[in-house]
Structures are given as C-alpha cells and as structure tokens.
Inverse folding.
C-alpha cells in the first residue's frame, strides 16, 4: 500500500486487539503492542501482500529506570516495495524474557545480542545469546541509565608486571575538578599563578 493511512487501517483491521495504539508521524507508522503478540504481528507485516515489511533495520531499547516496565523495546522495519517505514514497540519489566525474531529475520541475531550486551534484555530461543560488544567477564550493561559513567574497571599497561591489567576504577581528585573555561583564554589556575608571579617581580 502506498498510502500510510490505508496501511494503518489495514493493520488495525487485520490484527484487531493485538495493536494497542497506532499513529502516523514523520511519514512513518508507529505501532505499540504487547510483548506476547510480537511474533504474530511481525509475521503479518512481513508476509501480507499489502504491507511487505521484509527488512528489519534495527532493534534498540530505551531505558526508563523509574518505571515498573523499565525497558521499551523498539523495532524498525522497512518495506522496499512500498518505500515505507514502520516502528514497532512494547514495554517489558527488567527481568522479562522476550521472543527472538531470528527465526523470522536471521539478521536479528546480532541485533539481539547487542541489546542483550548493552541493556541485559534476554531473548527466548536465541541461537547464540552472548555478549558481542564488551569483553569476556564484563560487569554490567553499559547503556543502562544506572551504569556508572566511569565503568567498574579500567584497563592499563603495568610496567611492573609487563602486561595489560584490569583494575577497579580510581579517579584522582584533581581530574574531577573542571573550570569549563576556554583553553584559549587560559584557565583560572594558570591566571592565578601568572598574577602571583607578576606581583613577586
């Protein structure tokens, strides 16, 4: 379907109660569903002759730590034939396990591994669910909002041990104080030092 309004009506009429909300904005269709309806909805929009959303572009997550359903899972689809985009989303709680799309879209394999690595969201029946961006034994999930900006460990080369070592992060206090002034104008401590030297001379 070339018309987004007709497409929205078609999806709502065919899927009925599986669609919680739908709207058209930014020349795209946005659908909100429940997590248990994911497979049915995705199979329909991929295989139906009037939708043909046959490419999964991306899977991502938005973290709302203050909510009981903490994560919003977002899927981006593209229909090459109709040159249309669809954004599908639903909310889940922190420890909820959700269905994998790898049987329908094999490209979901790495996308779901990235979501697992960065946010800690687990996928049921995923063929190889393990970290993909962080290292073995990495602690935590870096894109969660409660993950510390400095991380938990730091990697450095130890001259004493002659090898790369992992250590807990230790920030020296002088690295925490910033004056946010332009380096072209000179920072406060340099100005103060210069002024005190001028007075001595």
């Amino acid at each position: 379907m070339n018309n987004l309004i007709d497409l929205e009506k078609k999806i709502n009429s065919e899927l009925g109660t599986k669609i919680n909300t739908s709207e058209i904005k930014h020349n795209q269709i946005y659908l909100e569903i429940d997590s248990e309806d994911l497979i049915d909805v995705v199979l329909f929009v991929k295989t139906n002759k009037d939708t043909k959303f046959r490419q999964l572009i991306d899977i991502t997550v938005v973290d709302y730590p203050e909510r009981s359903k903490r994560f919003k899972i977002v899927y981006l689809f593209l229909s090459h034939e109709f040159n249309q985009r669809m954004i599908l989303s639903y909310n889940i709680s922190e420890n909820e396990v959700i269905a994998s799309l790898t049987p329908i879209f094999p490209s979901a394999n790495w996308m779901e591994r990235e979501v697992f690595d960065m946010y800690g969201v687990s996928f049921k029946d995923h063929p190889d669910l393990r970290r993909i961006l962080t290292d073995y034994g990495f602690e935590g999930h870096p894109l969660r909002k409660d993950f510390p900006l400095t991380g938990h460990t730091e990697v450095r080369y130890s001259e004493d041990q002659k090898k790369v070592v992992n250590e807990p992060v230790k920030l020296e206090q002088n690295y925490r104080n910033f004056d946010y002034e332009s380096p072209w104008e000179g920072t406060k401590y340099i100005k103060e030092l210069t002024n005190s030297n001028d007075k001595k001379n």
Summary: The CA atoms of residues 42 and 168 lie 43 Å apart. The longest strand covers residues 55-63.
